From TrEMBL:
Record-linked InterPro entries: AAA+_ATPase, ABC_transporter-like_ATP-bd, ABC_transporter-like_CS, Metal_Ion_Import_ABC, P-loop_NTPase
Keywords on record: ATP-binding, Nucleotide-binding, Transport
Occurrences of domain ABC transporter (ranges): 33-296
Annotated protein name in UniProt: ABC transporter
Superkingdom classification of source: Archaea
MF (Gene Ontology): ATP binding; ATP hydrolysis activity
Region (Disordered): 1-30
Keyword match Aminoacyl-tRNA synthetase: no
Amino acid sequence: MSSQDTDSATAERTDERPTAATNAETPTGEPVIDLRDVAFGYTATPVVEGVSLAVDPGEYIAVVGPNGSGKSTLMQLMLGLLEPDAGRARLFGERADRFDDGERLGYVAQHASAAKEMPITVREVVKMGRYPHVGFDRLSADDRTVAAALREDPVETVRRAANAVSGRLAAEDWAIVDDALATVGMSAFADRRITQLSGGQRQRAFIARALAGEADLLVLDEPTVGVDAESVEAFYDLLGELNAGGITVLLIEHDLGAVVEQADRVVCLNREVYFDGPTDEFVDSDALARAFGAGARSLAGVDR
């Protein structure tokens, strides 16, 4: 599907699909992510030190830093996958490591490498986004024994529970799945196996899964690694459209040029925060040289 077709599909559904801004339950003025003096290390090695930052609803933020600067660790702290050694991390107003409202989060991993071996179709990937919305209230009394069965045979029980939930997707759920596919321009690939897609197409499929889950926050960890240049441009166009629709975008990115062109705000990290502010101010600051070295301005395409 061409980028023009993608734009048309997105425009046609702008009024049909609730934006993240209308879905969000975060109280007015409450940051989506709030870190206060956060520190974390592996054994005796500090990885993140004294990091404080807040991400407000609807922002488009890029976190940049050299290899080994702690970007991925910081992302895990933000999402509650790691607990800080010191300081505080909150997600949608709750302690990040205790946050359990997973439907509000959409995560796109680097490479989407796990998807390369999954013998499932694009539509099957996207419908996974609906699973958190299909609770046990839609299951029969017999299916409510899942909790007990989990203790005896967790792998088989999870498989059967997923099949049970999938079989109970309502018409509304399937409509949301189809809408998400159309929004990212992947309707024509819905029945194609995920293994048959290019890197850029796989990433779009995983964004569609997040959209199907009606996520308020989309977190992407270096999502364009290994994706061809033409697909990268279309990918960032899509992120811009989603952000304009109200979804908060947090991008962990190695491509400084893309960050300068796409993000509204930059957090420059090398164990500690070297810069946090508007992109144009980042370009004119000395944070690039201090965090990356003297040649970083050329890498960002701002050597002037």
